[in-house]
Write a structure and sequence with these properties.
Order of helices and strands: HHHHH
Structural class: mainly alpha
Radius of gyration: 17 Å
Number of helices: 5
Distance between the termini: 55 Å
Length: 107
């Protein structure tokens, strides 16, 4: 049960990783954010997308007492989800808060 649920967890992270990677790719192309911010987002998204390998485990219904290499490899996506993505979010927040106030938005 734990192994199969891990595949679902990592696969979900991989889907979010696709969104994060595409978002930062577009922001980089349009120069909407600082290059360092988009670089962090691309790296975090790439690590998270490793979790897409869990789809094989989901489709095959793999479940057992031992963790096969696929679970361990998919687990690398947690580095993106648990460490790199939160760091990217903090950088994004800092970037947003450091922007000068737009006088058109104040009332």
């Amino acid at each position: 049960d734990v192994q199969l649920s891990s595949y679902y967890f990592f696969f979900g992270n991989g889907l979010i990783g696709i969104w994060l990677w595409v978002l930062n790719r577009i922001a980089r192309q349009q120069a909407a954010w600082a290059p360092s911010l988009t670089r962090w987002g691309l790296v975090a998204g790439a690590f998270m997308m490793v979790g897409l390998l869990g789809l094989y485990g989901i489709l095959s219904g793999s479940d057992g007492g031992e963790y096969p290499p696929l679970v361990l490899i998919s687990g690398i996506s947690y580095l993106g989800t648990g460490i790199l993505y939160p760091l990217w979010c903090l950088q994004l927040g800092r970037s947003i808060l450091s922007q000068p106030d737009d006088p058109a938005l104040t009332t």
